[in-house]
Amino acid sequence: MAAALKFVFNPFATRRDVLILFCAENLKFGPASRRIVSRMGDGFHRAAAADRFTGKNGSSLDLIAPGGLDVPRLVVVGTGKHSALTSRDLTKLGGVAMGKLTKTTAAATIFAEMRSGALKADQVADLALGARLRGYSFDLYKTKRKEDEEQAPKRIELNFACSNPASAEKAWGRRAAIADGVVFARDLVNEPGNVLYPGEFARRASGLTKVGVGVEVLDVAAMRKLGMGALLGVGQGSAHEAKLVVMRWNGGKRGGDPVAFIGKGVCFDSGGLSIKPAQNMEDMKGDMAGAACVVGLIHALAARKAKVNAVGAIGLVENMPDGKAQRPGDIVKTMSGQTIEIINTDAEGRLVLADVLHYVNKRFKPKLMINLATLTGAIIVALGQEYAGLFCNDDKLAERLIEAGEATGERVWRMPLGPEYDKMIDSKFADMKNTGGRSGGAITAAQLLQRFVDKTPWAHLDIAGTGMGSPQNDINHSWGSGWGVRLLERLVEDHYER
């Protein structure tokens, strides 16, 4: 297992293997950092010149046994051209700093100062958040270790040398709740399908009761009684029964309308009878990344005692080929009463979401609904892995999501909706069909979902490119990124807490 991280906020570190400083472009340090570097005489500037290090954003200079300093290693991380650093910038820099530690590092001190001086409490906490996210790894099932990994410490102590330790620790409490939510989501996405089937996923989500969340788990009989023919049709070919998990955090005004988050939870997607090619099918263990995000988000909101009423709902199924599996040409009746012709059993996520969206809308009457799903390969063709696709029926909600994405780095790009695309999923035999063909595939999937939200402000986030097999960056070196937790937590904080 990866080493646990301990965060300490204090003016002076008592123990360290590594000292980490920050400098702006052209080697401009803050006042306290400058005094530390000056103890090296001209040693630092000679080393920087030899390595062509100038303080460019994200770059670093690593010095072993630096002369004049009583530390084994000095790492200087560049912050780039001097300007006001945003929360997103500081989170990234915390990740960069964490990435410079070796597997044998037991303690490090991160000097919480930029060129302009000591960081404020919230800024220190942002550094710590980046370090925590960068330090994550998933090696639960590795039994053979290299020798250096066996000698690695079981815990790494990160000291943040700051001028306001009590305030920084308080600010870290909120960031820690967010980090825990992201880590929870990452763990879920990284688990293999033979471990994390619908029942086990529901059991883990039920653990949110420990942070004050109310959790209900609906079984097949309950969903059949509700008329969820679309969701149940997806899961009927699996040996593992489908589940619907409803999580409620009531931190806002009593009786106030909640904000609602809905996640696609296909714990493994073989494609069903429209079976996928064997190549890369193993990645389909991550087809529940939307549901993982919702669980992580509700955990984060509850753990930091967010002043909001929030509902999280996840439809958990396994899409498998079997004698009982649904067939192309089948027609299913949704909870809303609308019927869907199955053209391709591999277009299953929208069937799950259709019933869950209607259920949440009818039962909770939320002020808005946002669903997340690794829904289509088409969105990866359109946007790659840097942005999630955003489909929305409300301009204000779309603008807020875009702003939250820019603030956190979990960016979204708005895609079109329109009646022309709607016609592509009209069916000769039912109210609609579950796929409109290859052209505009991500859009026609969103058009189907829109038929189940009525007039409620709604956004659909297609996270096929960002939720699993995600790009590696300064705060994520995990296959499962936990994408969406920070985005939606920021949206709630900025706009929906009383």
Describe the protein.
With 498 residues, this protein is of the alpha/beta class. 35% of the residues lie in helices and 20% in strands. It has helices spanning 31-38, 43-51, 87-99, 121-134, 147-150, 165-190, 198-206, 220-226, 229-235, 289-303, 349-364, 378-383, 395-408, 419-422, 441-450, 485-495, and strands at residues 4-10, 18-23, 60-64, 73-78, 107-111, 113-114, 117-118, 155-161, 214-218, 243-250, 259-269, 309-319, 331-333, 339-341, 368-373, 388-392, 412-414, 432-433, 458-462. The strands form 4 sheets. The chain has an 8-stranded mixed sheet, with helices on both faces. Helix 10 packs across helix 16 and helix 11 (349-364) runs parallel beside helix 15 (441-450). The model has no long low-confidence stretch (mean pLDDT 95).
Which descriptors would you attach to this protein?
Leucine Aminopeptidase, subunit E, domain 1, 498 residues, 2 domains, Aminopeptidase, six-stranded mixed β-sheet
Précis, in short:
The chain has 498 residues and is of the alpha/beta class. 35% of the residues lie in helices and 20% in strands. An 8-stranded mixed β-sheet has the order 9-10-12-11-15-19-16-17, with helices on both faces.
